[in-house]
């Protein structure tokens, strides 16, 4: 009976309690979690920004070891170290075949349902279903996930680092390297320098951006941004950040702007900060009631600006997760530096509330 952190209602603290976990069905695997990052999307479930089926085991940024294989799983073995993909990618649907695995039909529907590929959860309590956040549920000592959501990596990558690849790194780095078309020498602006935004910064540097402007309102976050490669820092609490970005880009605006916060006003700012002919990429997850009124329609064509959403870093998890693990091992990707606090599952509520403090890039729950 694993111990797990369950969200029972919006606004309530997570309840750390024992839950029942059924055996993996065909095409599923049981995972002993090694670590789980605490992402803003987890916080967004607890405050109602991101509505999901409740009660649910939260957590979607995890890595662990396979302990049991369901029927028909032959590409993985017991003992494999895996990163959990919160969009399981089947590889055969229309989207997977068109190199848009992050929009996988099977995985996307499962992730939204609170269950696995058959839309039913494996967690329960007192005979009642307990759902999985995003086909994962990594705030638990153990979980069962679709085998297509388990990506094998080298055993030498420490669990805490591997866990971060599963959401913040894949999303942030992928936003820069996959979603946006950053060219060598480009100027890039990143609004929001938390666990995801810091990876957009290091992804932008990796993609060849020359100028990377970090925007945040917390000093500690801006200091992190510099460590991750930002060349210019803009304190959003100190005046008009759009004007400051224009000043830093010769009055033109940035080639590419990323919003990595999830608020209406900062989405509008990202679009305004983008130069004529540039791209704005929305990564932050806003609440359902946020709508966009960005520009007179005529301006969009005259200015040839583009606006794109970014889901899960536009990543093919089966190739991108092992690639990121390799980049880390080669010293080309900072992961240890993202870990501000190592906590136990019992401290998960503190980790969620500490997220907004300047010191925390990512808290990681370690399971022993
Ligand atoms: P975080 O809380 O670690 O970072 C958010 C950052 O934004 C913090 O550094 C804040 O100080 C900063 N911030 C807040 N308000 C403002 C403001 N008005 N101006 C400037 N800076 C501000 O969150 P995170 O990095 O874990 O996640 C960021 C967003 O990305 C969040 O909305 C999350 O839900 C989303 C996300 N999206 C995907 C995806 O697939 N698109 C995946 C994972 C996370
Ligand atoms: Zn996340």
Molecular structure report:
The chain is of the alpha/beta class. The chain has 2 domains: 3-168 and 314-366, Alpha-Beta Complex (Quinone Oxidoreductase, Chain A, domain 1), CATH 3.90.180.10; 181-309, NAD(P)-binding Rossmann-like Domain (Rossmann fold, 3-Layer(aba) Sandwich), CATH 3.40.50. Helix content is 29%, strand content 26%. The strands form 3 sheets. Strands 4, 6, 7, 10, 11, 18 and 19 form a 7-stranded mixed beta sheet that branches. The chain is globular, with a radius of gyration of 20 Å. The protein binds 5-beta-D-ribofuranosylpicolinamide adenine-dinucleotide and zinc ion (ZN). Residues 39-41, 44, 167-168, 171, 191-197, 215-218, 221, 236, 260-263, 266, 283-285, 310-312, 355 line the site of 5-beta-D-ribofuranosylpicolinamide adenine-dinucleotide (PAD).
